[in-house]
Amino acid sequence: MRHLKVFVLNRVVAKVMDLLLVIAVAAILPYPLGPLLGFIYSLLADGLNFGPFQGQSVGKRVLGLKVLNTVRKAPATYRDSALRNAPVGVATFFAIIPVWGWFILFLVGIPLMAMEIYLMLSVGNGHRLGDVMGDTEVVVEAAQPQK
């Protein structure tokens, strides 16, 4: 059980890191480009597959996690990422709309995130709603052999 809690904590910290990146992009780039690019990143980030990224967002890469498609047993694609992040994406979409959108984000996003964390802790394999929707799972990245 302790291992599961640490794993879930790492997933939550990775998501917070990605959300901070989304907020930074939204704050730095002009409206509506910044928020729109942040929203797109929040949907597609787990499908990054170039350079050192193998089915990983920036947060997951930093914490040594990766997303696998459970059917293909391969790193997540942009499609997999969009499907698995749709529940959170619905909430973050409202962040594009100033003031009222932020209010809706708070009302929808906080309970949704709480539900996702609850599912990760209570479902045996640590899957959340997005993992079921996208046929994905988050795994600890295998250590690379020393050369």
Q: In total, how many domains does the architecture comprise?
A: 1
* Termini gap: 34 Å
Range of helix content = 55-70%
| Regions with little confidence, pLDDT below 50 for 5+ residues | none
Rg on CA atoms, Å = 15 Å
Across the major sheet, the strand order is: 2-1-3
Please trace the helix and strand order, writing H or E for each element. Answer: HHHEEHHHE
Beta-sheet strand percentage?
A: 5-15%
Count of β-strands: 3
Look at the structure and give the mean pLDDT: 88
Classification by helices and strands = mainly alpha
The biggest sheet, with number of strands, parallel, antiparallel or mixed sense and barrel status, is: 3 strands, antiparallel
Q: Can you tell me the overall shape? A: globular
Number of helices: 6
Give the helices and strands, then pairings.
Elements lengths: L1 H27 L4 H12 L13 H6 L1 E5 L4 E2 L2 H16 L6 H23 L6 H6 L1 E5 L7
Antiparallel strand pairs: 1-2, 1-3
Helix pairs in contact: 1-2, 2-4, 4-5
Notes on the protein architecture:
The chain has 147 residues and is mainly alpha-helical. The protein has one domain (2-140). The protein has six helices and three strands; from the N terminus they run H-H-H-E-E-H-H-H-E. The chain has helices at 2-28, 33-44, 58-63, 78-93, 100-122, 129-134, and strands spanning 65-69, 74-75, 136-140. Strands 2-1-3 form a three-stranded antiparallel beta sheet. A hairpin with a 4-residue loop joins strand 1 (65-69) and strand 2. Helix 1 (2-28) runs antiparallel to helix 2 (33-44) and helix 2 (33-44) packs across helix 4. The protein is globular. The relative contact order is 0.16.
